[in-house]
Amino acid sequence: MKRDDPLPNLHAPVPGPASRAWLQRLRAVESPNVTAIGDDFPVVWQRARGALVWDVDGNRYLDAGSAFGVAFIGHGHPAVREAAHAQVDTLLHGMGDVHPPTARIALLELLDVLTPGDLGHGVLCTGGSEAVEVALKTAMLATGKPGIVAFSDGYHGLTLGALGGTARPDFRGPFARWVPGPTTFCAYATDAATRDRVLAEVEAALTDPQAPAGVVLIEPLQGRGGTRLPAPGLLAGLRALCDAHGALLCFDEIFTGCGRTGAFFACEHPDLGAPDGVLPDLLCIGKALGGGFPVSACLGRPQVMAAWGPSAGEALHTSTFLGHPVAAAAAVAALTAIRDEGLVARARDDGAALLATLRDALGDHPAVREIRGRGLMLGVDLGDGGLAWRVVLGCLRRGVLLLPCGTGGHVVQLTPPAVMSAAQRTYVVDVLVDAVHEQAQTAA
Ligand SMILES: Cc1ncc(COP(=O)(O)O)c(C=O)c1O
């Protein structure tokens, strides 16, 4: 049996007594809105390797979600651990935008090589939302225009600026009065007819005489919004409109980037972009970038990033931990592993096989609306958030970690690590199929 072949092994109830005890302690000290604690969810994690996670009761799970997509190269990849340890032993932290550590420079240089086109000038950040903030601030400076065009069900983070592009009403609602706008939301076009209507709406927003939008912010393949592929021609159409009306096109590839969809960046798929690709002016990446360490980036074309002007001593956007050397060294190791271990091709091929297996097993089930996605970013659309949640809980009880996505949580999302073995993927599918059958029957 290969090292990464083990399957779930549950010694204790899920959640077990140790998880419950830790959750009680957490409840006493954490702000109540952070962790939803119920009778059957969550479990408290203790360690992880590859596609496997152990909880504090010793239960072993398969992580079919890669911890929000982060563990694309697997949890605790040896090259990432080695690079991080070496960096910890030499220079554990740096000084933000002053006195740069070498790791920060090495990461930016590698990103310059790996990103398509001339997206070679970057700002390193610690989380995805911050990278989106930098993109939006860049657009404001470069275009002088206030508005953002974003898309229904899109998710770009929850900091105040990024929230201006995040559509989900449950996140925006409580802050809608204060979130800076104006923001124009358009439907996310997954079919040709909607695409043409949406492109007309986008054009109206970009040419609005009162508050013209200066940036179009889109995930080339929607992740948390429900694992949705754009209509062919949508991204190319947006590119043409931005060029025509002096706006910037920003691709949020925080979830889809670094190999997840079977291309290094989702915008590089010829059918999603265009035969010769659609390049954005700004590209946000995060999640898998750091191999588990918190690092993200907003990358831009040099002429766009020039809008910030040279630093005269105080950077206009920085933070204490900008370009943290341990995170940067880990990211260099993670990106190198993705490139040198063929993980992008593995995501493409294993993802196609997984999609076909899921469609064979569940495509005709009456509770399943659609099974879709690209590479290792797949979703089983059940059209019903209650059912999807019960399926997620059913999978957890059998040792498979998954989460729902989509507004209303009606899609069970699969974003496994690229290092998950065929036997482990088969186990995940078997458990998911059983859970859909069981839970759909319960509902009927
Ligand atoms: C597409 C996309 N953009 C931005 C974010 C926000 O990233 P973070 O949670 O690291 O702030 C996410 C997080 O899920 C995301 O999926």
Could you explain the architecture of this structure?
It is a single chain. The protein has 444 residues and is α/β, with parallel strands linked by helices. The protein folds into 2 domains: 148 residues, Aspartate Aminotransferase, domain 1, CATH 3.90.1150.10; 263 residues, Aspartate Aminotransferase, domain 2, CATH 3.40.640.10. 38% of the residues lie in helices and 15% in strands. The chain is built from 14 helices and 15 strands. Strands 4-10-9-8-7-5-6 form a 7-stranded mixed sheet, sandwiched between helices. Helix 3 runs antiparallel to helix 11, helix 8 packs parallel to helix 9 and helix 13 packs across helix 14. It binds pyridoxal-5'-phosphate. The site of pyridoxal-5'-phosphate has 15 residues, from helix 5.
Q: Strands, helices and their partners?
A:
Blueprint: H1 17-29, E1 45-49, E2 52-55, E3 60-63, H2 66-69, H3 78-90, H4 102-114, E4 121-125, H5 128-143, E5 147-151, H6 160-163, H7 169-172, E6 183-186, H8 192-206, E7 213-218, H9 234-245, E8 248-252, E9 282-285, E10 296-300, H10 302-305, H11 325-340, H12 343-362, E11 370-374, E12 377-381, H13 385-397, E13 400-401, E14 403-405, E15 411-414, H14 422-443
Parallel strand pairs: 3-13, 5-6, 5-7, 7-8, 8-9
Antiparallel strand pairs: 1-2, 2-3, 4-10, 9-10, 11-12, 12-15, 14-15
Bound molecules: pyridoxal-5'-phosphate.
